[in-house]
Specification:
CATH superfamily: Globins
Number of helices: 7
Helix content: 55-70%
CATH class: Mainly Alpha
CATH architecture: Orthogonal Bundle
Number of domains: 1
Distance between the termini: 20 Å
Structural class: mainly alpha
Number of strands: 0
Length: 177
């Protein structure tokens, strides 16, 4: 059963990252990225198990129901690596707002135009990222670090939503994002 949208509403409000938050995000990410393949797969499997409607955008594995089978999917692993590399680029670029904007713009455009992904899934994915990282890295994802990540993911969601709006995304008025 899919969760209610309200669980990720805190991702609709963002503010600029502080220097301290940037450092916490980059330090924590360095630890997570050491296991980027496993972390990425865990994130996507959790997304697809808890929010099965998110699989509709992936013809290669949208009919796979079993979590273990999803984990073994080479296509899922490939996409998980792409997601983790995009997050890595974002985190590495936190000191360069132009680069951050460029990355988020490219991701937003690709998902709106080419993949036609409803922008609400960025909020959902962000919530899943926070959940999985908190469970997998409890010593790293302290409350303060999780708060910094929440702010970064809110920036991501707001920026991508702005890209969708700029493109005149036809479903935005119907979306809960």
């Amino acid at each position: 059963m899919e969760r209610k949208q309200g669980e990720v509403d805190h991702l609709e409000r963002s503010r600029p990252l502080t220097d301290k938050e940037r450092v916490m995000i980059q330090d924590s990410w360095a630890k997570v990225y050491q296991n980027c393949d496993d972390a990425g797969v865990a994130i996507l499997v959790r997304l697809f198990v808890n929010f099965p409607s998110s699989k509709q955008y992936f013809s290669q594995f949208k009919h796979i129901e079993d979590a273990e089978e999803l984990e073994k999917s080479s296509q899922l692993r490939k996409h998980a690596r792409r997601v983790m590399n995009a997050i890595n680029t974002l985190v590495e670029s936190l000191d360069n707002s132009d680069k951050v904007s460029s990355v988020l713009n490219a991701v937003g455009k690709a998902h709106a135009i080419r993949h036609k992904v409803d922008p609400v899934y960025f909020k959902i994915l962000s919530g899943v990222i926070l959940e999985v990282l908190g469970e997998a890295y409890p010593q790293v994802m302290t409350a303060e670090v999780a708060s910094a990540w929440t702010n970064l993911l809110a920036i991501l969601c707001c920026s991508i939503k702005a890209v969708y709006e700029e493109l005149g995304w036809p479903h935005l008025s119907n979306s809960t994002s």
